[in-house]
Amino acid sequence: MLTPLRAILVEDEPLAARRLADLLRKQPVPLAVVGTAESVEEAAELLRATQPAPDVLFLDIQLADGLSFELFERVEVRCPVIFTTAYDQYALRAFKHNSIDYLLKPIDADELAAAVARLQARQPAAAPAFDATLLTQLMQQLQPQPQYKQQFVVKVGEHLKVIPVAQVAYFFSFEKATFLQTREGRRVVVDQTLEQLEQLLNPSEFFRLNRAYLVHHTAIQDIIHYTNSRLKTTLAPTSPEGDVLVSRERVSAFRA
Question: Which parts of the sequence belong to the Response regulatory domain (predicted)?
Fold first, then answer.
């Protein structure tokens, strides 16, 4: 008679946890659930208390108190892990190369059976090593990405015009107004301040040269050494002030 494999389930959705437990009980490979947890904190405590270590850990990626990857920072995981997730399989491709199984929700009974069979075939082999780089890359993919502004609606006479951010060369302030300068040479007033625009625009594309100018990096045509280790830039289209100085406190970040 086969010795049942011992499993811990970490899942913060009660219905999903019950369904997974039911599916595991129906597996042809004997498998016993020896503990359940709903959060990273509970999972860490459970793993510390479970001796010997379980044969497998079923781990949901997004838990009530954060991403489950934090678990690996809190406790040594000494068993294979099968991730369960609602995220698209392409975001999890890294795990294929790291010999870690994963199941997409809603979990398919046949896929679960195949994963458990692979797990049994590895017994009593040691748990696969976790590649911190791959885990970090996946965490970055799962984090919500900032949504930067894609266009501006501006008033031109009695009309409203849409200007895509891709057409913006730079913004500048003058006499308490903020102007948008397009690559084609059009200049219009926008409602936002430069401080607000810094929050709305992608920082990998726009840089605040000084108190008065926020520029797209492709609008910088030349960089010239100036006095006291300062720099000045030539923009295209040419700014109303001609060359634009980089503030002394921003020079280091500008160089970087």
Answer: 6-120
Q: Which amino acid is at 14?
A: P
SS3 218: helix
Return phi, psi of residue 59, to 5°.
Answer: -130, 115
pTM above 0.90, yes or no: no
DSSP 157: T
Average pLDDT for the chain: 85
Residue tagged 């503990």 (tokens): 35
Give the up-direction half-sphere exposure of residue 34: CA atoms within 13 A in the CB hemisphere. Answer: 17
Q: Yes or no: say if 27 and 2 are a contact pair by the CB < 8 Å rule.
A: no
Tokens at 195, concatenated = 């401080």
Q: Which residues pair with 244 in a beta bridge?
A: 233
Identify which has the larger pLDDT, 112 or 92.
112
Q: What is the percentage of the chain residues whose pLDDT exceeds 90?
A: 47
- Sign for the CA dihedral angle at 110, 134, 63, 199 comes to negative
- Which DSSP string do the residues of 83-145 spell out, in sequence order? EEESS-GGGGHHHHHTT-EEEESSPPHHHHHHHHHHHHHHTTSPPPPP-HHHHHHHHHHHSPP
